[in-house]
């Protein structure tokens, strides 16, 4: 089977401190957004990409892939969850949907394949994730340690995240109506009492967030297995 992936790319990249949204910065010869979109479409189980952009975005139109027939452009919203909902509302008649951050250009195809395989055997879907490595501290507002959290069963949530379309759309709409703060798709499903599976993925699937991440992403892109 082949799937559609929604790529939220309507953020401003505040933490990157650059002169444009981070998805339009160039690494290894192309913008981060081009790396992300082309890498997704190169996977045999991806047939269509919905890229969610700021309504006033005038960078995307100048990219060589802007007119590709496998890409649909949709206007995003103020929060990431609003952007994902805009993408979901533009879809119909599909059972499952993937959501993947524009800012994660280094996703490995084997990890994506594994996610697709595991999630389809589950009722509510699954996400890529990786285990926490450092010792985890809980602190108070004065940055004083109050507690050392056990690392057992503690994971970083990555993307892609893969869910039945109707379930994800309903959960995100309900969370929006209840003004629950949702930072990834899984949290909407969790909030709606669904059980989301974790699929262990590579730590190289970083979300390019701060200036130093650019060099790291470039390294991973250049050293990717063929
Ligand atoms: N995103 C989006 N719509 C928003 C906010 C974020 O589509 N209203 C997208 C971003 O473009 C990014 C992904 O969601 O691809 C993950 O968000 P994040 O890494 O936080 O990106 P930004 O919000 O752009 O960065 P920052 O938080 O530093 O401003
Ligand atoms: Mg953000």
UniProtKB/TrEMBL annotation:
Task: Name a biological process GO annotation.
Answer: isopentenyl diphosphate biosynthetic process, methylerythritol 4-phosphate pathway
Q: Name one Pfam family in it.
A: IspD
Q: Which domain of life is it from?
A: Bacteria
- Residues of the site described as Transition state stabilizer: 15, 22
Q: Which UniProt keywords apply?
A: Isoprene biosynthesis, Nucleotidyltransferase, Transferase
Q: Which CDD domains match?
A: CDP-ME_synthetase (cd02516)
> Which residue positions does UniProt flag as site: Positions MEP for the nucleophilic attack?
151, 207
**Which GO terms of the molecular function aspect are on file?**
2-C-methyl-D-erythritol 4-phosphate cytidylyltransferase activity
Q: Which reaction does it catalyse?
A: 2-C-methyl-D-erythritol 4-phosphate + CTP + H(+) = 4-CDP-2-C-methyl-D-erythritol + diphosphate
Q: Annotated pathway, please?
A: Isoprenoid biosynthesis; isopentenyl diphosphate biosynthesis via DXP pathway; isopentenyl diphosphate from 1-deoxy-D-xylulose 5-phosphate: step 2/6
The EC number(s) attached to this protein equal 2.7.7.60
The entry sums up its family as follows: Belongs to the IspD/TarI cytidylyltransferase family. IspD subfamily.
Instruction: Report the protein's function.
Output: Catalyzes the formation of 4-diphosphocytidyl-2-C-methyl-D-erythritol from CTP and 2-C-methyl-D-erythritol 4-phosphate (MEP).
**Annotated protein name in UniProt:** 2-C-methyl-D-erythritol 4-phosphate cytidylyltransferase
Look up and give the organism this protein is from: Paraglaciecola polaris LMG 21857
**Encoding gene per record:** ispD
